[in-house]
Amino acid sequence: NYGADPNKRDVIYNTPLHLAACIHNFSIISMLINAKADVSCLDMHGRNPLQLASSKLEILQKGWRQGAIEMVKLREEVQQVVDLLLSILMRGIEEKWKNFSLM
């Protein structure tokens, strides 16, 4: 609307559409496509905006999976510590009650 070129490139040949796809900003992507942004333009690595968005999504999914696995491992380790502490506590209580007499 203001005369900006939606296909203007930066020093590594990214267009505004590449950048919007990279950050998954759907409102800007829609605006750029409506302004006739070239969806097939390539950056200096030969990637179009769709390929760039897809690669970022894969990275995020892998990162989430790795994070989830780490969280499961962490949970298991914490559970082992809790179980150990509970067993020590229970043994201590049992020892105290062994020596306790009502009379």
UniProtKB/TrEMBL annotation:
Plays an important role in regulating intracellular signaling events associated with erythroid terminal differentiation. Keywords: ANK repeat, Repeat. SUPFAM superfamilies: Ankyrin repeat (SSF48403). Signal peptide: none annotated. Gene3D superfamilies: Ankyrin repeat-containing domain. This is Ankyrin repeat domain-containing protein 54. Transmembrane segments: none annotated. It holds the Pfam family Ank_2. ANK repeats lie at residues 12-44. PROSITE patterns: ANK_REPEAT.
